[in-house]
Design a protein that fits this description.
The strands form three sheets. The protein has a five-stranded parallel β-sheet. By secondary structure, the protein is α/β, with parallel strands linked by helices. The protein starts with a strand and ends in a 12-residue tail after the last helix. Helix 2 packs across helix 13. The protein is globular, with a radius of gyration of 21 Å. It has two domains: about 130 residues, Aspartate/ornithine carbamoyltransferase (Rossmann fold), CATH 3.40.50.1370; about 150 residues, 3-Layer(aba) Sandwich (Rossmann fold). It has 13 helices and eleven strands. Strand 8, helix 8 and strand 9 form a beta-alpha-beta unit. This is ornithine carbamoyltransferase.
Amino acid sequence: LNKVLKCTEVLSPFLSVRVCVRVSASFALKGRSCLTLRDFSSEEIKRLLWVSGDLKHRIKQENQYLPLLQGKSIAMIFEKRSTRTRMSTETGFALLGGHPCFLTSQDIHLGVNESSRDTARVLSGLCDIVLARVYSHSTLEELSKEASIPIINGLSDLYHPIQILADYLTLQEHFGSLSGLTVAWIGDGNNVLHSFMMSAAKLGIHLRIATPKGYEPEKSVIQEARRLSDEHGTQLLLTSDPMEAAHGSNVLVTDTWVSMGQEEEKKKRLDDFKGYQITMQTGSVARPDWTFLHCLPRKQEEVDDQVFYSSRSLVFPEAENRKWTIMGLVVSLLTDYTPQIPMMKF
């Protein structure tokens, strides 16, 4: 897993040969951006999780000090407010010896006071990496195109990759492996679901998705998810029946029904999502070992207290793992770090 082939053309006056050597897979990650897990292979996602689990073990369990990011800084651009994304990134980056710089729309108004193109070039000379939490995914694409440093998607209207990395680490810790698990998504066809769909099959995870009619995932995302499912031999179900999605699942997942920027749609959405609240009755058709995830913040109409605060709920370990996985991601994108613990089982 931690080796890839790197090939180079070697020229001489007499011949040209192609030389291939084994190098650490971290070199394949260093310097890259992370806008969507669609761009990452199965082995690359597993390595990100391995690095995250390694840092968690060494720092939290063994109380080691690892200044892997000493002398480095991260610009955190937030068009949308956040608790977990801000706290996990600021505390995680600082814990590794780096300097986080938080920028709100009052500090840096992307595309208004200064173009995204110019902002990307300016920040490329002032810091080492950018995490941007934005409304439009196209903003991230423009930043990534113009920047000479890695750009991380802290959330966009299309994807939320850093949330899904935390979810996978949480499930790996709970179940011991990911391959063969069945995840049921019951809720809106939103950015978090899109990130599940772009990565679950790569880890051997089956997906059962229930969304109300009119709230389905993007058609292009469905098409790619079907291709990935066929390629990796996993199952993908799309339905409008929450109980059908929950049937036989190991994990029940939901998210907010009303995202930031959709407040005017709240009444209609609450009506359209009736019957989608996750309860113990929903879990009655799942596997006996079923668990629950929610990326937070949570509203009671999405999941009742009996499930949310039960022993089946992994929401608070999931929230903590936002820190360890963002740490694993930035370390992988900025350094040649090699994990010290044995490879995790996936």
